[in-house]
Amino acid sequence: MRIYLTLSEGEKEALEGLLKRSPKPYLRERASAILQIASGSFGNEVANKGLLRRRRKNTVYDWVVRYKAAGIKGLEQKAGRGRKPGFSPSKPPTTTNPG
């Protein structure tokens, strides 16, 4: 499967800025993948050799689809992802009274 992506100059500059200045490594990786796809690389090439670590080609394609749908916001991790904290200092512990 091949996905084509055409970027305007503004979109390309925004992704390059994200690639160079984002404090979040996952956003830099995703911006790099989008720029490589837009320059004509196949998703499989980008997934296997174009990033710091190998990714599934479907992962790269998902990033492209999310970018097409929502722009840079689509590349951010959605709320609720990842491991949940076991303890939250803002909440007082609940006590159970057996009697």
What's the structural blueprint in terms of helices and strands?
Blueprint: H1 9-21, H2 25-38, H3 43-50, H4 57-70
Low-confidence stretches: none
Mean pLDDT: 89
Quaternary state of the chains: single chain
Determine Rg (CA atoms, Å).
19 Å
H and E order: HHHH
Structural class: mainly alpha
Largest sheet composition:
none
Q: How many H/I helices? A: 4
End-to-end Cα distance, whole Å, is: 63 Å
What is the 3D shape? elongated
Give me the count of strands: 0
* Percentage of residues in helical conformation: 40-55%
* Range of strand content: under 5%
Can you walk through the features of this model?
The chain has helices at about 10-20, 25-40, 45-50, 55-70. The chain is mainly α. It has a domain at about 10-75. The longest helix has 14 residues, at about 25-40.
Which keywords apply here?
99 residues, 4 helices, elongated
Short synopsis of the structure:
It is built from four helices and no strands. It is mostly helical and 99 residues long.
